[in-house]
Write a structure and sequence with these properties.
single chain; alpha/beta; four-stranded parallel β-sheet; Rossmann fold; transferase; two-stranded antiparallel ribbon; 295 residues; globular
């Protein structure tokens, strides 16, 4: 594409009050009218909350632990990012149209923007939530390397944007609370990144139970191994190194950076931590959601 530079580092555009990539905003009517199928499995997360990890686990489950089958293509083709549009490069809606069922569908949309067809068809959904401080840090590094985002500015500036919801896909606080409330009425398995890190095997078993699948121990162990951070980091079909440098610059920061809980301690100053915690209490007041910011 000749005008590659015109695609990247552009300001976000509001869609129903949520800041999204300009290209998503332009194609919004197509995304809103996306037709889910009853056997679709939706993977929903706020960005940088373990999306690729849970996607790889689920693709391994769908392929009975066959790691070679899961190397058939890059993760973003195996589990298309429904609302993503990069003109001349990718359209999640188009990718999904051409996929056979059962499909794994990825979204970062807040609950109120999810296409209605998912609710109408009573699709099963998996939501993964990660503590806000680790998300903010991971998102800051991701903004630097993934050039569809606007420039992040300094860490201090980015943290302020994160706290005020002026980042792509909007407020983390509203996102995690919105999906948490919705699970009362729909088939949503709500998982926590920290729990998955602490006991990944237990996480896989929860997924299998939710999907009503039985798997022998040795296959579960295979899935456990192939979805571990160290193995995925070396796997080109999972680590996004197949993306062009103009889209994602891994020399700035690798897509799979650390994959740990508590890394925020290496980034936040004491003053930032105190300000963040005070703001967090206000924004999460009244919610039954509880997060661990380290394990």
């Amino acid at each position: 594409m000749d005008n590659m530079q015109n695609v990247f580092r552009r300001e976000l555009v509001d869609v129903q009050g949520i800041p999204l990539f300009w290209s998503i905003a332009e194609e919004w009517s197509k995304i809103e009218s996306f037709e889910a199928r009853p056997d679709d499995l939706l993977i929903s997360t706020y960005p940088k909350s373990g999306t690729t990890w849970i996607s790889e686990i689920l693709d391994l489950i769908y392929n009975n632990g066959d790691a070679d089958k899961c190397k058939r293509d890059a993760i973003y083709n195996r589990v298309p990012f429904m609302e993503l549009v990069i003109p001349g490069i990718i359209s999640g809606v188009e990718q999904l149209k051409n996929m056979q069922s059962p499909r794994l569908v990825k979204t970062h949309l807040p609950v109120q923007l999810l296409p209605y067809s998912f609710w109408k068809n009573d699709c099963k959904m998996i939501y993964v939530a990660r503590n806000a401080k680790d998300v903010a840090v991971s998102y800051y590094y991701f903004y630097q390397m993934a050039k569809l985002h606007p420039e992040p500015g300094t860490w201090e500036e980015f943290l302020d944007k994160f706290m005020t919801g002026k980042v792509s896909f909007g407020s983390w606080y509203d996102h995690v609370k919105g999906w948490w409330e919705k699970k009362k009425d729909y088939r949503i398995l709500y998982l926590f990144y920290e729990d998955m890190k602490e006991n990944p095997k237990c996480g896989i078993q929860k997924l299998l139970k939710f999907l009503e699948k039985d798997m022998p121990e040795e296959i579960v162990n295979k899935i456990l191994y192939h979805s571990s951070f160290d193995v995925m980091k070396q796997n080109p079909s999972a680590n996004y190194t197949t993306m062009g440098k103009e889209e994602m610059d891994h020399s700035v920061s690798p897509f799979m950076r650390k994959g740990i809980s508590g890394d925020w301690k290496n980034q936040f100053t004491v003053a930032q931590y105190e300000k963040f915690e005070e703001d967090y209490k206000k924004k999460m007041r009244g919610s039954t959601l509880q997060f661990r910011s380290e394990i």
